[in-house]
Design a protein that fits this description.
This protein is of the alpha+beta class. It contains 9 helices and 4 strands. The longest helix is centred in the C-terminal third of the chain and has 44 residues. This is Cell division protein FtsX.
Length: 326
């Protein structure tokens, strides 16, 4: 009985070793075909470089737009201050009453920040910015009212929500006038929406073009190796085995094209960073251009490799099956 149990255990162990060896052979075969596909590209450097260059520059534009959309989110956070509401208080409101108003407003869920500028502070600021200097000292009374600056939360920073908040603030008993540039906010959000739609449309069109380019390149490779494919099918090779090197070729096209696009986008961002800084300084907004970080690189390579495999897959599934020995 013990000998029978021992024999069964040795048989199970041999099965496990065989399955492990088959797994090793599977990955080894895939690695060999991947390296051979890369060697095929290396043996025709000019044609491969031309194809990779076309793919790289085709991916560069949507990748650049992707980075710009990512930076737009950061800019929109800075532009939330564009929805700032100015509340001009009544002339009879004292500083104590104004502080009570601020205390109430800070409890509102629609409001992120509240700041108070007294009439004296407003006059000093106007004296500096206007350049009138000591001429304002001859005024008998301060004509400027106290002002409360209200910054809505990001959820209530849209033109519609900010307008509703403005109507609500105007009903406060201390408020004389409420001011908000609704038209500027509407133009701002409309511009951002149009930019995002254009980014999506251009990305879809260019990605479709990349798939067509890779598919056509793989199709030409298949036609050039027609005789080899016929011989392989005569000796019993399956379509999956024949298609695998072409799929790896699409993988390398996508990967190398993505790397080229990454380098190109990085150079473009370095070139425009200085101009962007000067533009944002005019609006008194601090902004650091987010370059190609690791997450962006991973997304770009994933998309480019996926496009390469998709283009090659569409081509090999159609043309390899059509090649049959006569």
């Amino acid at each position: 009985m013990s000998l029978l149990f021992k024999g069964r255990a040795q048989g199970a162990e041999s099965v496990k070793i065989g399955a492990f060896q088959m797994l090793i052979m599977f990955f080894t075969d895939h690695l060999r075909q991947a390296v051979n596909s890369l060697g095929e590209l290396w043996r025709s450097p000019f044609a491969s470089l031309m194809t990779i260059g076309v793919l790289g520059f085709s991916i560069t534009l949507p990748s650049t737009l992707y980075v710009l959309v990512k930076n737009t989110e950061q800019i929109s956070q800075q532009w939330e201050q564009a929805s700032e509401i100015s509340l001009f208080l009544k002339s009879g409101v004292t500083d104590a009453s104004a502080q009570q108003l601020l205390t109430r407003l800070r409890l509102w869920p629609e409001i992120a920040e509240v700041a108070y500028i007294s009439s004296e502070e407003g006059l000093k600021e106007f004296q500096i910015l206007s350049g009138l200097g000591d001429a304002l000292n001859y005024l008998e009374t301060n004509p400027l009212p106290a002002v409360v600056l209200v910054v809505p939360t990001s959820k209530h920073a849209s033109p519609t929500a900010a307008g509703i908040l403005l109507d609500k603030l105007r009903k406060e008993r201390e408020v004389e006038i409420g001011k908000l540039d609704i038209e500027w906010l509407e133009r701002l959000y409309a511009l951002i929406g149009i930019a995002k739609d254009l980014v999506t449309l251009l990305a879809v069109l260019l990605f479709f073009a990349v798939v067509l380019i890779i598919g056509n390149t793989i199709r030409l490779n298949i036609l050039n190796k027609r005789d080899e494919i016929v011989v392989m099918k005569l000796v019993g090779a399956t379509d999956a085995f024949i298609q695998r090197p072409f799929l790896y070729t699409g993988f390398w096209f996508g990967f190398l094209g993505g790397v080229m696009a990454w380098v190109t986008v990085l150079l473009i961002l370095l070139w425009v960073d200085y101009s962007m800084q000067n533009f944002m300084e005019k609006y008194q907004v601090s902004f650091d251009l987010t370059a190609m970080d690791l997450s962006t690189l991973i997304v770009m390579l994933t998309v480019s490799v996926g496009l390469g495999i998709a283009g090659s897959l569409l081509s090999v599934q159609r043309h390899v099956k059509d090649i049959e020995p006569r």
